[in-house]
Amino acid sequence: VKRRIDDLAPGGGFVFAPVHNIQPDVPPRNLMAMWATLQNYGTY
């Protein structure tokens, strides 16, 4: 998540979102880690 923010956010206009939906076999802890990373690094 941080890598994508670092790559895509410079210059503005980046909207973070999962590709289309969250697959049922994704562990909830992965979703929480994604959200925490977005909160820590996703503001510009």
Written description of the protein model:
With 44 residues, the chain is an all-alpha fold. Helix content is 48%, strand content 0%. It has two helices and no strands. The longest helix is centred in the last third of the chain and has 14 residues. The mean pLDDT is 88. It comes from marine sediment metagenome.
Question: Main traits of this protein?
Answer:
mainly alpha, 2 helices, 44 residues, UROD/MetE-like_sf
Secondary-structure blueprint:
Layout (H helix, E strand, L loop, with lengths): L1 H7 L19 H14 L3
- What's the total count of β strands? 0
Residue fraction in strands: under 5%
- In round numbers, the mean pLDDT is 88
Sequence of secondary-structure elements: HH
What is the terminal-to-terminal distance?
15 Å
* Structural class computed from helices and strand pairing: mainly alpha
State the share of residues found in helices, binned by percent: 40-55%
Instruction: Count up the helices.
Output: 2
Total discrete domains: 1
Organism: marine sediment metagenome
Protein name: Uroporphyrinogen decarboxylase (URO-D) domain-containing protein
Summarize this, please?
The protein has 44 residues and is mainly α. The chain is 48% helix and 0% strand.
